[in-house]
Design brief:
By secondary structure, the chain is mainly alpha-helical. The chain has a domain at about 25-50 and about 115-280. It has helices at about 5-40, 45-85, 90-140, 150-180, 180-205, 210-215, 220-235, 245-260, 275-280.
């Protein structure tokens, strides 16, 4: 009989831990949604997101125009002339039309696949200033006034981190064909964590934390971080409009840092004195 109370106690304790873990994960996901809501609630922040968005759109448009004019159309005209020689003019027109449509569709899919990463790369400096402005307006945190060297290392570390994340995403995409199911789970686990850290990075940089030091701040809050990163990952899967949510995810990471870790004892790894490999870890 004495074993039953112990078993019941262990079961209740395990249930309580499970509920607490699930609550932390869900709470973390909520920060992503709150961040998007906050971004659209503050028109003062919109300019920081609009400038890199317009820049990326123009760059994509110019690249597509150049590829179509200098590569696809000449190749299509050569192929059309070759087909006309043995199958007639109608067949040549059909081949040219199919090639142009296929190339346009391929360019569209390629731009849809990498537009978020390019937007983050172009916008890293603007997002850093947006986060500072938000913290000043909402949390009354003064501008840290980072030096030019700190700004440069911050931007470069974001580029390295985003590049590694992009490579991992491509690797998991390929693995999805070889290990269906397993690869998708690994994608959520690995990229969820990296997205969580990535969108908290600007708030961490404002406290002069490297990315590795920022990760150490979440040692006791890993499920909150995973929940936030997983929600970011799922939001970015929304086709076409997900790019518009990226600034809001940066704000969500800022809210998470301020509310989950804001009054903790922050470590102070000065950015210019850290190795870039440390930032990309």
């Amino acid at each position: 009989m004495s074993g039953r109370p112990r078993t019941a106690s262990r079961s209740a304790s395990a249930g309580a831990r499970l509920r607490a873990s699930a609550g932390a994960f869900v709470r973390g996901g909520g920060y992503a949604l709150r961040g998007i809501k906050e971004f659209f609630r503050w028109p003062r922040l919109w300019g920081y997101a609009l400038i890199p968005l317009v820049s990326v759109t123009i760059v994509f448009f110019l690249i597509c125009r150049c590829v179509m004019a200098w590569l696809v159309r000449p190749a299509g005209e050569w192929l059309q002339a070759w087909v006309v020689g043995w199958a007639g003019e109608t067949a040549g027109e059909i081949v040219l039309c199919c090639l142009l449509v296929s190339a346009t569709l391929l360019l569209f899919l390629l731009s849809a696949a990498i537009k978020n990463d390019l937007y983050e790369l172009f916008g890293s400096l603007f997002f850093a200033r947006m986060v500072r402005r938000y913290e000043e307006l909402v949390y009354h945190r003064p501008d840290p006034r980072l030096s030019l060297g700190e700004e440069a290392v911050q931007t470069l570390s974001c580029v390295v981190y985003a590049a590694v994340t992009l490579v991992l995403a491509l690797v998991f995409f390929v693995l999805g064909f070889l290990l269906p199911g397993v690869a998708q789970v690994l994608t959520v686990l690995v990229l969820g964590r990296r997205y969580g850290i990535g969108y908290c990075a600007e708030a961490g940089f404002n406290r002069r934390l490297s990315l590795s030091a920022l990760q150490r701040q979440f040692r006791g809050r890993r499920l909150v971080l995973y929940g936030f990163g997983t929600m970011c990952f799922l939001i970015l899967l929304v086709p076409l409009v997900s790019t518009l949510f990226i600034p809001g995810l940066c704000i969500g990471g800022t809210i998470l840092v301020n509310e989950e870790c804001g009054r903790a004892e922050w470590e102070t790894d000065k950015l210019p004195n850290k190795e870039l490999a440390d930032h990309a870890s």
